[in-house]
Protein 1
Amino acid sequence: MTSTAASEGREQPSLRDFFASRFVQAILLSGLFLQIGIWVRNFAILFYVTDLTGNDPNAVSLISVAEFLPIFLFSFIGGTFADRWRPKRTMVWCDLLSAVSVLLVLLTLLFGTWKAVFFATLVSSILSQFSQPSGMRLFKQHVHESQLQLGMSVYQTMMAVFMILGPSLGTLVYYNLGIDWAMGIMCGCFVLSAVTLMFLPPDRAEDRREQTHIAREMALGFKYVLSRRLLTMLGVNFAVAGLAIGLIMPMSIFLVTEHLGLDKSHLQWFTGINGAAMIVGGGLAMAFSKKASPQSMLAAGMAVSVVAIAAIGTTSSVAVALVAQFISGLVMPAIQIAINTLILQNTEDAFVGRVNGILNPLFMGAMVLTMSVAGLLKDAFSLSAIYLVSSGLFVLGVLVMLPMLRVKK
């Protein structure tokens, strides 16, 4: 019996109990520090690379590849080890090692080559493949099943707030303090996150269970996913969505500068309005989650994304592009909350890391594939054509979702 299943026999906790939880407080504070560091990193490195390369689309695409390729290569390995190791200790060490890697990059920037900035993104992305599934395991252990969707919504709302504040913060740090200070702030944020995670409840006894051979545990993970129809179909949907998102993710700065004729600093407003929409969408998703299944929320969110992405890529009006961006952000929480809820509700605690490690590479691998050729496609085709192809792939994703609507937990 999993810890979550065992908790079903106890009285369901209140909203006050949820926010008074030592685990919830620590994990949210850790997330706060990580969000500050990540957004400073993302925008500082983006502007730094574009300044040095003259807006080279291939260099911009390389930033995204450095961030997402490790998710494809290390997600399953990280998820498997996350199921073996003690989750709290794993998360603390991952944040500390990330801080050390950023410090090394900072020293390289001071005395070596600017290309070291890619290494900072690469290392922190690799370590997150061990930390993230460990966090999911702790979430399933310490949060009552009736409040899993609430927890997902709260965390997504915090991320949405930083989609408003983060771009401005990253832009402010880079243009006023420079890349060296940006890397220093990122290092400090990882250290603060690690210190905060030390206040999590101790790892449970079952997290020290006897372990079998790593190859056998990997094989059991694949068998587990294939034996559950909903998880299998979710994996197919992940791959299709990854292809679609990978096409347009590196193109956002070119959408702003070339398609709409704005300065690159205006990118923060598009990201900001997307974050504002996600805050509103998070509240709507929480309200509709009581009446709609996670499967239907996911299908509806992807269907709306079809129209929004097509509009963003084809309009030459800044106002229309902003409205479409808002609509796209409005449904994003429903998609993310539905995915995380489906995984946690349909996965036993002992397999959470491996299920994440199998599904995420399907999404990220497909996304990295199209990211890798995005720069070449940008040279060969118009931005509108790229966005329309992405929209068409989302249509395929919705079609894949339809059989899932009839699958129950």
Protein 2
Amino acid sequence: MGRKKKATVNSDAVSGSKMKEQIVTGANSSSNRILECWIVSVNDDLVDVVPVESTPATKHQQASSDDDGGWKVVTKKSKDKAWRGSISGNPFKIIWEKLKLVKKALKQVHSQEFTSITSKIDKARDELTSVQQSLAQEPDLLELQEKEKICTLNLKKWLSIEESALRQKARIQWLKLGDSTEKFSTLLVLYSEQGQKLDDMKDIRGEFVKFYSSLLGSRSTELESIDLPTVRNGPQVSVQHMAYKKLMGMHTKVYWRRIVCNNKASPRSLFIVWLMLSKKLVTVEVLRKWQVQCDMLCVFCQRFEESIDHLFFGCQFTQAVWQRVLNKLGCMRNVTDHNKEVDCAARISRRKSDKAKVYCMLFAEYIYAVWLQRNDRRFGRNHLDENMLFKQILFRVAIRCSDVQRLLLL
């Protein structure tokens, strides 16, 4: 067949030779695969495409490809119709006609595979939401976890397709806009600040220089000396900073601030932790001060009056849940009272180890889970036992921590 040459060779070296070209096919869901193809031109006008090199797909790409068949660029039927048809003429005309057929086949595939992208994104998002809701009820089920990964990859794939389509449309609109405004790219008339019409290029150039000179400022011939007393006094507070300090007032820093500030738990749980540490949670003890008539007993043990100190670390039910959390993290100690547990969490929050970060996340998610379960029982909704509440806390922490931190929960 002769030596292999590039597709950009001269016309006298085309017939009876192999021409190499790269075709960007769109490829897989997370990367644009480039297939190197050989276009073979022989005497019977048969042109075929044979892929010889492609980038290997990753594990997640294979999972997505197994689910929906990948990005079908040209099906076998479309390729046969496009490349195996009999067209007469010189080799360059044959290639030109074949490429036109491929373009038509690509349009057909686009209309079949990539229409109604918005509806497909909504469908993929609904499937992912349904799987995540089921996974929240049964977090240990491996089948649901694998299904969640597949649904996540499918949603990311269609989102990337939508983004690519929007970028292409924006690029086309920008090119059209540039072509339509090309005739006005030369500035012929300009009006000065006084309203005078300038049509001479020398006057227009002078007006530009004058405008930007006033905008950027002029060069000073001398510099003022440094005020040494001001430098010695240190940083000076601006008027805006002084007004901000006046509005905010003077407050002392609380010792537990790092529990909330350096915590990667969910924002909802951090808000509830902040209310709990600030003694602002509306418990039965607070309602009694407001003279609201309600059941004063704890909804978990039905023995003592509900308060912040009793609810989270004084009740027998919540103590058992927090004890399991401590044992899971390797803290072999017994649960103490409310103040000591908060002091312990404040000390651990100052550390930078992965175990300390996971401890703070578990602390926040535990407070949030207990408060939600208290509200559910107080208002007659679903009741979770000790085991289900413990698993729910671990699941909320596991989905937000890193892979190394997740190993501490195994």
